[in-house]
Amino acid sequence: MQISVIIPTYNRSHLLLQALKSLQEQTLKSFELLVVDNAADLKIESMVADFNQTAKVLVKYVSEPQLGLHNARHAGANAAKGDVLVFTDDDATFDANWLLSYAQAFSEHPEMVAAGGPVRPVWEAPPPQWLLEYMGDSKMFTILSLMEPYAEFRLDPQGFFFGVNMAIRRDVLFKMGGFNPESFGDIWLGDGESGLNRKLWKDNLLVGYVPDAIVHHHIPPSRMTVDYFCRRVANEGACDMYSYYHKAIPNRLHLLTHVVQIAVKNKFWLKSLLTQKRNAPSALDIKLNAARSQSQIKYIFRLIFDRDFQKLVLRQNWLCN
After folding, report:
1. Residue 164 has what pLDDT?
2. Domain co-membership, 82 together with 9
3. For residue 206, what are the β-bridge partners?
4. pTM value > 0.85
5. How far apart, in whole angstroms, are the C-alpha atoms of residue 167 and residue 189?
6. Which of 194, 221, 248 is the last residue of a domain?
7. Neighbours of 69 (CB within 10 A)
8. Cross-strand pairs, 83
């Protein structure tokens, strides 16, 4: 079994270099390492070439000028030679046994088609108190893509992973049609790796949790703000609507009815105005729910008036362009 690590990147050379250096310390003796440059930037290509001069594990550079994380991931999947594809992000570093843990789990459990593992935070500045209070002792915090739900190995048809730490058998990824889209520039379209999770669940395929496959996700101060949290949850609201309408889009009357239902069910706009300067967990919940529901409504209105957007939402396979 061969493992290929795929790292999409977009104009973040300093973070990418940190990730590549970390991967040089893996205990797995042999693996393929690919960087997919979604900006098609000559500086990144040059940096990779310089890095390879002294690297223990050489990096294969892949250019993907077509914007979109799903496009970068799929370019990496098409270029990779491994039987198991391991995806991560350029703002991560890795436990030395990360890949060895995945390799052992896939070898010992041939029925496992995909897997995830712990994602722990590396705070690049002391996190504010309101953030720590809001996180509490949560085992999974989606806003910052952090998770460590179990202490032991699990294999479950409802298993899950985050894109910063996931592995999947190559043949399964292609059979499923790849990742769903996420964003195109400033347009948030779909549900990314969450959509891939749902495809696996639908087919009752087994997804593992590998507790020793540990990734460290670096959190900069710019992500420790209420504004960032609201933007992230607004994106999740768009993901909700993509998942809801991905298979079929009803007529305008049904869409408008859905708008009314969201507005009536989620009466958070006025409350969010009253809590603008408060960061207590209950006040933050109100702000985030308002951001989510407003994003959902905007998404539905776009479905009503933009036929090109409808076509993108209904597209089923993004792995083959």
Report:
1. 98
2. yes
3. 112
4. yes
5. 23
6. 221
7. 21
8. none
